Amino acid sequence: MDEPLQDNSNYEGIFQDHDINSDPDGNDLTKALGTFYLTLEAKHLVPSSTVQTIVSGINDLARLSMSHQEKKLRSLLQGTLTEETIDSVADQLFNESKSSNVFLNQKFLSSVHLRKKYYHEEYTFVEPVKTFFDDDPDAQPRKFYYYVPIKETITAMYSDPAFRVAAHTVPVYDSTRLTDYHDGTRYQRYRHLLGESESLNIILFQDAFGLVNPLLPSTAKKHKLLGVYMVLGNTPAHWRSHVNNIQLVGLCKEKEYEHTKFYKKTHPRFEGH
Fold first, then answer.
1. Edge to edge, what strands does the sheet with 144-147 contain?
2. Which residue has the higher pLDDT, 156 or 212?
3. N or C, which end of the chain is more exposed by having fewer CB within 10 Å?
4. Under 8 Å CB-to-CB from 238, ≥6 apart: which residues?
5. Residues 246, 226: one domain?
6. Angle at Cα 174 formed by Cα 169 and Cα 179, nearest 5°?
7. Cα-flanking dihedrals φ and ψ of residue 130, to 5°?
8. pLDDT band at residue 229 under the 50/70/90 scheme
9. Residue range of the domain that includes 165
10. By the 8 A CB rule, do 180 and 201 touch?
11. Helix axes 259-270, 150-157, angle to 10 degrees
12. C-alpha Rg value of the chain to the nearest Å
């Protein structure tokens, strides 16, 4: 039985706001295309090899489309213009534009290596750092985790003007109701000690997840990972529940995770540095 078609009437396309007149060099279009590929890889977990197939497919489609348009134009002009004039028109419309066609020549996005380089240069990417739980280099086996620096992550978040405004919105306190963590007496005592100074309320939590079929008990625990995540309490509550605003801080094998050592090593990285 065929599945019903999905209604995409509310879909916000990445190219719908592109104005060709304000972007004659196609820089915005390249940025939109890069965002599309990054969304596939980072949000929808599409493998980079699959994205490469999509890139090649877009190149082939663009080339076929341009070739078809050129043949159609030549056919329409046949008999009304000389062959020399038709060649000149076709050359200006198609051959010269091939070098600037973003879909045909994705020079910044044509390979896995170039796309990663483009992501680093154009987006707020924070590099994870491999960190060992134990400082002893002779310890065997050496348990480790990948740490995404909190300070750099917050700096990247603050590069968004909309986030800066939302992060400094003063919450309305109502002593008669508990609507959020800042309504509790413990937080109010903390705020009283701080006085009028501003602070960032960093909320950390952890969650474990499996990477294999849970019906295979022999491998379920072996391939189980644990992630440590962060949200900023300064942002509105509905922002904190949105997956795009939850930042990864640490990732390791669940069986190797050591809570105390992780936080002892993590806290000094963003306190006073």
1. 129-132, 144-147, 247-253, 224-232, 202-210
2. 156
3. N
4. none
5. yes
6. 75
7. -75, 120
8. very high
9. 129-170+201-270
10. no
11. 50
12. 26
Q: In this predicted model, what pLDDT tens digit does every residue of 16-72 receive, in sequence order?
A: 554 545 444 557 788 888 899 998 988 787 999 999 999 999 888 888 888 888 889
Pair 19, 32: CB distance under 8 Å = no
DSSP reduced 3-state for 232:
strand
Answer positive or negative: Cα dihedral of 54, 56, 57, 62: positive
Helix, strand and coil in the chain, % to nearest 5: 45, 15, 40
Q: What angle do CA 61, 64, 66 make, to 5 degrees?
A: 105
Q: What are the E-state strand segments in the chain?
A: 129-132, 144-147, 202-210, 224-232, 247-253
Residues 139 and 79 in one domain: no
Q: How far is CA 65 from CA 32, 47, 220, in A?
A: 20, 27, 48
Cα–Cα distance for residue pair 261/267, rounded to 1 Å: 10
Q: Are 111 and 57 members of one domain?
A: yes
Q: Is residue 257 very low, low, confident or very high in pLDDT (cuts 50, 70, 90)? A: confident
CA–CA separation, 164 and 154 (whole Å): 10
Instruction: Indicate if the pLDDT at residue 255 is higher than 60.
Output: yes
| 176 in any annotated domain | no
Lookup: tokens for 155? 């700096």
Angle at 80 between CA 98 and CA 84, to 5 degrees: 50
Q: Could you report the per-residue pLDDT of 175-193, keeping only the tens digit for each?
A: 788 888 888 888 878 776 6
Q: Which amino acid appears at position 241 of this protein?
A: S
Element (H, E) at 77: helix 48-77
Q: Which two structure tokens, joined as six digits, stand for 254?
A: 């669940």
**Contact between residue 90 and residue 74 where contact means Cβ atoms under 8 Å apart:** yes
Q: Rounded CA gap, 74 and 95, in Å?
A: 14
Model confidence at 8: pLDDT above 50: no
How many structural domains compose the chain?
Answer: 2
